[in-house]
Amino acid sequence: MLVTGFNPDDLFARIDELYDFIEPYIVEDRTLNDRNIYPGSINLVGLQYNYTVEDSRKNKDYTMINVSFGLKQFIKARFDSVCKHYGFNKKAVLRDAAIYRKQVAINRKAKKIQEQIKVKKQELKKACGNAKKKIQKSINELLNKLNKLFKA
């Protein structure tokens, strides 16, 4: 699990990617409307915690807001704790994770190339004359890319 997903190297980039995606919605949610209330607020009488956009930015990283650990801080602490508890070498786990990520990326690219080859083969069946040779050349180029990918 530490190699395939729950490690800082994998999660931090994904957290940043997802945060960039949702940040405009956080800004919208934390901007008072013309009635001076936050959009989507239901309890207008009870305790109001004014969690700001800046709080969300800080809390996704390492800053503790009230009693909530920063998300990256929590992940790093859990990763370190698990490695220590089970006697894992953190550098080795992160190295293995990098190798795993590369293999996953290669497999995805290989699958995409194989799908392109399948489409080209279907086109080849329909083609005739010079067009057939052109498509066959394209298939051979894709096969060469696939071979190079697995030799890397």
Short description:
By secondary structure, the chain is mainly alpha-helical. The chain is built from five helices and no strands.
List the helices and strands and how they pair.
Layout: H1 8-29, H2 53-60, H3 71-86, H4 90-126, H5 129-151
Helix pairs in contact: 1-2, 1-3, 4-5
Coiled coil: 110-152
Keywords: Coiled coil
Task: Describe, in plain words, how this protein is organized in 3D.
With 152 residues, this protein is mainly alpha-helical. The protein folds into two domains: 1-42 and 49-88, no CATH class; 104-152. It is built from five helices and no strands. It has helices spanning 8-29, 53-60, 71-86, 90-126, 129-151. It is flat, with a radius of gyration of 25 Å.
Number of domains: 2
Helix content: 55-70%
Question: What is the chain-wise order of helices and strands?
Answer: HHHHH
Distance between the termini: 26 Å
Q: Helix/strand-derived class?
A: mainly alpha
What is the C-alpha radius of gyration, as a whole number of Å? Answer: 25 Å
Count, helices: 5
Give the quaternary arrangement of the chains: single chain
Number of strands: 0
Task: Give the averaged pLDDT, no decimals.
Answer: 88
Shape assignment: flat
Which residues sit in consecutive blocks of at least 5 with pLDDT less than 50? none
Percentage beta strand: under 5%
Task: Summarize the main sheet.
Answer: none
